[in-house]
Every structure is written in C-alpha cells, then in structure tokens.
Fold this sequence. Notes:
Mean pLDDT: 97
Strand content: 15-25%
Distance between the termini: 35 Å
Number of helices: 16
Strand order of the largest sheet: 4-10-9-8-7-5-6
Number of strands: 15
Radius of gyration: 22 Å
CATH superfamily of the largest domain: Type I PLP-dependent aspartate aminotransferase-like (Major domain)
Shape: globular
Helix content: 40-55%
Number of domains: 2
CATH topology of the largest domain: Aspartate Aminotransferase, domain 2
Bound molecules: 3-[O-phosphonopyridoxyl]--amino-benzoic acid
Amino acid sequence: MTTDNKPQRETRDYQAGDAAHHIHAFLDQKALNAEGPRVIVGGERLHLWDNDGHRYLDGMSGLWCTNLGYGRKDLAAAATRQLEQLPYYNMFFHTTHPAVVELSELLFSLLPRHYSHAIYTNSGSEANEVLIRTVRRYWQILGKPQKKIMIGRWNGYHGSTLGATALGGMKFMHDMGGVIPDVEHIDEPYWFAHEGDLTPQEFGLRAARQLETKILELGAENVAAFVAEPFQGAGGMIFPPESYWPEIQRICRQYDVLLCADEVIGGFGRTGEWFAHQHFDFQPDTLSIAKGLTSGYIPMGGLILSRRMAEVLVEQGGVFAHGLTYSGHPVAAAVAIANLTALRDEGVVTQVKTDTGPYLQQCLREVFGDHPLVGEIQGVGLVAALQFAQDKATRKRFANEADITWRCRTIGFEEGLIIRSTLGRMIMAPALIATRGEIDELVAKTKIAVDRTAKEIGLL
Length: 460
Ligand code: PXG
C-alpha cells in the first residue's frame, strides 16, 4: 500500500456506511451486508489494494474495462485539462466542441472504413437502448415500419436498462420486470453444453440456423435486427465455433436483417484486433461500444453506424428524436482520446495480437490442458475461459457447477487474485498492458485456485 492510500477510515466504518445507503449490482444485499464488502482504495497497472492493505492481481480489468490498467497519469491529465478548459456543453443547441470532434476523427481512423457515424452515450446499456430505437427508425425511414422485431440470444448480456435487459437473454433479469414487446431470442452457440455428438463446426452451423428458422417463423418483413456479442462475455465467455459467424452473416444478408455486434467487451483490443468482429471476420452494420473506449476511467459508450445506415438517417431521416444530456461529454471524450492514443501509439493492441495474447493462451493450455477439473479452454488475445467438467471426454458438467466455480473465485480472492466465475466457467480478461511476467503471475495464481478447488471436491 502506498502512503497516498493509507486508510482514512476504518474498513468496518466504510462497510457500515455502505450497508446503510447503497444497493449493489447483482447481489443479495442482506448477505453482502453481513459479509461486508472489500473496500478497494487504489490500483497500479494490474494490481489493486484494499483498505486493509491486501493486494490483488486483477485478472478481470475491473469489469472488462481497464484495458490500460490502473494509475495512468496521462488519462488523469487529459481529464483535468478538459475540466479546466470546458467541463461541459451540450449537443442540442446547434453546438459541438473540439473534444468530441477529435474523438470521432480518431475513432473512425481505427475502425474499418465502412463505419462513418457515432451516437455517444454514457454506458453500454445506453448504447443498446439507442440501438433498438435507431434500427427501428432506420426501417421506418425506408418505409418498413413493421420491421421492428429485435432478435437476441439466450444468456446474452447487453446491459441493465429496460431495453438492453430485454435484448439480453438473462431470464432472471427478465423476471424482474425486464421485458418489452417485439424482442425474441435464439440459443447461444455453447458447444460444450450441447449434449449431442455434433462436432463444433456442425454445432456452430446448427446454432446459426436457429436464426434463419426464427426469422422465417416471424416473417423477415417483421425482423429489424439480430444482436449479439461476437464472443459472449457475462454469459460465460463463450466462443462460437468458426462456422457460426459466417453463417449468421449469410442469413442476415439473405433476409435483409441488420447485423448488430455488441462490442462493449470485445472492443478496443481484447482479442488482439481492435474489434472482436474483426477476429471472427464478419461485418456488422452497427457496433455497440463502451468500457475499453475510456479504459473505464470515466463513463462513455456509443453506437457506431455503418455508412449505409448513417446515410439513410442523415439524408432522409429529418429530426432524430433522441438525445442524452451527456452525449459526447467533453471530459469523457478527452479521456477516450488519451486512452485510444495510448492503445495505438504504445502498440498495446499489436502486442496483444503478436505476443502477450498468444503467450497467455499457450500458458493456459500447457498448465490446464490435462487438469482433471478443466474440460475445455477457450479464448484468444487476453480473454480466456476455463470450463470445469466432471468428465472431459463426454462433456459431463457438474450438477453444482455454479457452486464449484464460485468457490474457485473465492479461493482466488484469498490468494490475491481476481477472476470471475459464471455457471461452469472461470473467466479471465486482464488489462491489455499485461507483461509476460504479469501473465505468469496470473496463470500461477489461477493454478493455485483451481488446484485448491479440485482438492476440495476430491479430484486431486
Ligand atoms: N454489453 C455487453 C456485452 C456488456 O458486457 C453491457 C453491454 C452494458 O454496459 P454498461 O456500461 O451499461 O454496464 C455490458 C456490461 C459481468 C458483467 O459480470 C459484465 C457487464 C456488466 C456487469 C457485469 O461479466 N458488462
């Protein structure tokens, strides 16, 4: 712990204040209050420390967002400069400002050339709210107002606001008042969970063709868009088989359905490409972005539109009846510029592609390839998942897999490591600046956590 971060108040005092006033995300409040949250007070590169001086290796880049790691003075300086120059102005009164103009120029210099316009938001959820309204507006302008059904995927995650929740496929979120009309879902391409004997490639094609079946059932004239994460993040870091995305793209083109990629997690270098759809080699019509846009230092998101869509909205659309007070916020834009500049000029994304990404993937396969608890290893660049399984050969999963992975995550914390558990998988997505040494530490600590878990359930 550094002196800058010496405790100002007792941990239990912070915990009491938190319990008294704060509803946390996706947690049982009562249980959390009884346990008392860890109070995180500082961070540097991949490490965090809490109010009691415990250090953690953050294997999750915060919540998939601190792509440049913690403690970047250049991002802080960019925010300070902009706060002093122009802390706020809006985009409504026939106005703009240099920060947002320069951000757009930089962003579109990094994106494939067939994208041309952005609608800025504060978060990924808002990006997906805007997505729903924008694709429906697009079809209205083209004289097809009935083309408004959005198709998402079960277990996909697109955010926590109403439209984004409905678009996502988390049933427990739908159950908490999270549905809207004209949203449908197909299955996720989760080969390991598939109980038949299809190869991954056969399974990928079959999973993709569910989209065709759904479109035909609903009538292509009623379907606006298909929305999915290039690889599924919160739903378990699920990588589709190679056959999946080309077939999805074929289907969307054939039935004139917009293909919308949620790049909130996959964007800004995670896979070693600037955007995850580039890794999977397909061409979406829209991209939802957030998180890595600012490395999480300040909230910002957006919806990226293809030139074809933007031309319709701009040339034929008249008034676009949407706007957020903080769209293109100058301070967020200034931080995003500093972040993207660093990712580009320090060669961070290139390094993930050519060095640290392959290194992490190779280390994980060497260390866990024959591990008795691990049935499958998926990932590319600096994102990976370990699928826990009772029997790798038959892909038999544990009946209580969520408990086992949760236990592994808890042991991780005890060992000074933060990795995430989903149903049957452990997920890691470290900051993109990770060195080989930091990757060694991540893999070694993960091995300790997985071994301890395996011992507890009698597998080692
Ligand atoms: N799309 C995707 C693909 C996401 O992962 C969002 C949209 C929403 O972004 P905002 O900025 O509104 O949170 C996300 C968010 C997890 C977890 O447990 C992941 C997210 C959020 C909360 C938890 O992996 N991703």
